[in-house]
Amino acid sequence: MFKYKGIKVNYKDFGQKDKSPIVYLHGWGQNIKMMEPIAKPFTDTHRLIILDLPGFGDSDEPEEAWDLDEYVLMLKELLNYLDIKKPNLIGHSFGGKICLLYAAKYDTEKLILLSSPYKVKMKKPSLKVRLLKKVKNIPGLGNMADKMKKHFGSTDYRNASPMMRDILVKHVNTDLTEMAKKIKCPTFIIWGDKDEAVDVADAYELEKLIPNSGLTVYEGCTHYAYLERLNQTNAIIKSFIK
């Protein structure tokens, strides 16, 4: 068990301890099990580390609203604890965003991003948002606006605890466009063309931002494209991380 600033971080460290390490980070609201299908096939060839990000699975929830930099510091401390200096990183969605920022700041062997958001979405306020603002400005209806926000919000937001909601807001409002340009390690990007969480157009933009990168788009696949074409994903990992 590893602790970071008093927070328990649950992780699994298995495979070949003397081989090249691969570190896996899951997406928002997920846990270790979501990354096992793309980790277990490499038990005989790599050292494998999968963790429950703080706030998910069997890891503790942060005691304050962490930003992405804090998650990266936690990951760095864990890898120092495990004596891993230059990891291969694979991250899905929220976990991919953490991997992206880590690779921009620290030595990384190779990076695989799975449907990973990296920029702030700029879009016109919806009817729901405009309605909430109007209700909030009416004297005595502040509590009603808060209840409506929970009802109208995204599934991730509605299902999160108050602390994790604050963390989610920080996450979605953090733009890593400039940080992506600083990544020096070879990078491979996997996306689904039917991804409704992070538009596939972002994948093409991200490929242009990261200097040494490649992209594969899975036709007919969603935000979980890496699992929907599991055999293809594992073949890419095997070829890319030798």
Describe the structure.
With 242 residues, this protein is of the alpha/beta class. It folds into 2 domains: 185 residues, Alpha/Beta hydrolase fold, catalytic domain (Rossmann fold, 3-Layer(aba) Sandwich), CATH 3.40.50.1820; 52 residues, no CATH class. It has 10 helices and 9 strands. The strands form 2 sheets. A 7-stranded mixed beta sheet has the order 3-5-4-6-7-8-9, sandwiched between helices. The chain has a two-stranded antiparallel ribbon with strand order 1-2. α3 runs antiparallel to α4. The two termini are 29 Å apart. About 5% of the residues have low confidence.
Mean pLDDT: 89
CATH architecture of the largest domain: 3-Layer(aba) Sandwich
- Helix run count: 10
Low-confidence stretches: 123-129, 148-153
User: Separation of termini?
Assistant: 29 Å
CATH fold naming of the largest domain: Rossmann fold
Shape: globular
Rg over CA atoms, rounded to whole Å, is 19 Å
| Count of extended strands | 9
Number of domains: 2
Question: What's the name of the CATH homologous superfamily of the largest domain?
Answer: Alpha/Beta hydrolase fold, catalytic domain
Strand order of the largest sheet: 3-5-4-6-7-8-9
| Beta fraction | 15-25%
**H/E element string?**
EEEEEHEHEHHHHHEHEHH
Structural class: alpha/beta
Helix content range? 25-40%
